[in-house]
Write a structure and sequence with these properties.
The protein has three helices and seven strands; from the N terminus they run E-E-H-H-E-E-H-E-E-E. A hairpin with a 5-residue loop joins strand 3 (62-64) and strand 4 (70-71). The protein is globular. With 140 residues, it is α+β, with helices and mostly antiparallel strands. Helix content is 20%, strand content 45%. A seven-stranded antiparallel β-sheet has the order 1-2-5-6-7-3-4.
Length: 140
């Protein structure tokens, strides 16, 4: 077995290269008390604002979710001014991560490589229809 060591991840065997998964970051159902409980320690607004701030400061590059092409800051601003979009509607994040596991210490490390935010889309009856991708941000 080969152990991996880096200043970012520590020691471990790479077990996901990468893994891609979605995480709900906003409970769409106020009746779902477990969904609310799962998110009680998470500051969704802060995370979203910090990501947008990094984009607007030029410290993070956005990529079109569908084409993979880089997006300009003007394109991100256009998204923010569209009638359909509102930061408060961002309810899902897709993570791309590498995972490492050290069987000796039972320590697991996740290295987030990118995030993609998605916002809620509603039908004419104000029922959640699904989520629409915004853009991908690669993390350093």
């Amino acid at each position: 077995r080969v152990l991996f060591r880096s200043p970012v991840t520590g020691t471990g065997i790479k077990i996901a290269d990468p893994i891609i998964y979605d995480a709900l970051i906003k409970n769409p159902d106020p009746e779902d008390s477990w969904g609310t409980e799962e998110l009680k320690g998470f500051d969704r607004k802060k995370m979203i604002d910090l990501l947008f701030q990094a984009v607007y400061e030029g410290r993070a590059i956005t990529y079109n979710y569908h084409t993979g092409e880089p997006m300009s800051i003007e394109e991100v601003k256009k998204l923010e001014t569209s009638a359909e979009f509102d930061r408060t509607k961002i309810g899902k994040i897709q993570f791309v991560e590498d995972w490492y596991f050290d069987p000796e210490t039972l320590h697991m490390t996740k290295v987030v490589k990118s995030v993609m935010m998605a916002y809620e889309v509603y039908d004419q009856f104000d029922q959640l229809r699904g989520y629409k991708a915004t853009f991908r941000i690669d993390l350093k």
